[in-house]
Specification:
The chain has about 325 residues and is of the alpha/beta class. About 35% of the residues lie in helices and about 25% in strands. The chain is built from 12 helices and 12 strands. Keywords: ATP-binding, Nucleotide-binding, Transport.
């Protein structure tokens, strides 16, 4: 699933939370790759491990969680081998994150200008004046008036705050930007503006992105490639068109059938049941308790990724049988 020109290569990544009631396998042996100027969409139900995966790529897993295995190679460097001090030098400069919920990210007691200047001062050694000049240009890039450097977060609308967070993530022109639910709690008009902005940044800056969301309709607008996660694992990954028009995993098929379509008379359905407890996941395929096509082997053995098309892989025994 990897190849030449990969900006990011993740192999067999494990992120476990060691709690008093058991080990939560939030991300379990996940492998994926992202090329230059490519957008990888990561989709799945709440609790499937999408955000945990994003935080792990930056080495920001909070206790009692930790990376229990695997590698995260960014531009030739395995981030899992670096110390916290070395990771700080890479965050924002080579990889940055658009965090979920801008109001929770921005510090309410500092102005926008103060907060946006900090990465430039720390990583580039700019003076406050030099940093503010760069910040003003960054705000223009995301369609904001540079005068908001003097404002506090509470003085901005939700869409403006989200644009500030995007501008912060792009300040140092990183090779990879991780967008974790960047349009959550925004109305559809602002959502469309944010998606168009991210498309523009990808084209102009050749920035690679990971776009994390539970909303498949948003992913269809921006992603070149889609990875569908279920219960901490990758169920299916492939080019966006193949995932949406020729889904191979029963879980992916179920997700797509749950999306309302204006021009379709097909009845909206849903996936029965709930995701498993990741402290005690079922043996074999983790989706089999909810799968309409479950076979005996699904209960016993875990399926491995099988190639079903050009760069299209699915972890399902239905395809191993054929």
């Amino acid at each position: 699933m990897s190849g030449a020109g990969d900006v990011l290569e993740v192999r067999d990544l494990k992120v476990y939370y060691y709690t008093l009631t058991g080990v939560v396998k939030a991300v379990d042996e996940v492998s994926l790759n992202v090329k230059e100027a490519e957008v990888l969409g990561i989709a799945g139900e709440s609790g499937c491990g999408k955000s945990t995966l994003g935080y792990a790529l930056l080495g920001l897993i909070p206790p009692p969680g930790r990376i229990a295995g695997g590698s995260v190679v960014l531009d030739g460097t395995d981030l899992t081998k670096l110390s916290e001090g070395e990771l700080r030098k890479i965050r924002w400069s080579k990889v940055s994150m658009i965090f979920q919920g801008a109001m929770n990210v921005l510090n309410p007691v500092y102005t926008v200008g103060h907060q946006m200047s900090e990465p430039l001062i720390i990583h580039k050694g700019y003076t406050q004046k030099e940093a503010l000049n760069v910040v003003s240009e960054a705000l223009k890039q995301v369609g904001l008036n540079p005068e908001i450097v003097k404002r506090y977060p509470h003085e901005l609308s939700g869409g403006m705050k989200q644009r500030v967070v995007i501008a912060m993530a792009l300040l140092l022109k990183p090779k990879l930007v991780i967008a974790d639910e960047p349009t959550t709690a925004l109305d559809v008009v602002i959502q469309a503006q944010i998606i168009n902005l991210l498309k523009k940044i990808k084209q102009e800056e050749k920035t690679s992105m990971i776009f994390i969301t539970h909303d498949l309709s948003l992913i269809s607008e921006i992603a070149d490639k889609v990875a569908v996660m279920y219960a901490g694992k990758i169920a299916e990954v492939g080019p966006s068109e193949e995932i949406f028009y020729n889904p191979q995993h029963p879980y992916t098929q179920g997700l797509l059938k749950s999306i309302p379509r204006l021009r379709s008379k097909e009845k909206i359905t849903w996936i029965p049941g709930v995701p498993p407890d990741l402290r005690r996941p079922p043996p074999g395929c983790r989706f089999y308790p909810r799968c309409p096509y479950a076979m005996d082997i699904c209960r016993r053995e875990e399926p491995k990724p099988i190639k079903v098309g050009d760069q299209h892989y699915v972890a399902c025994w239905l395809h191993a049988k054929s």
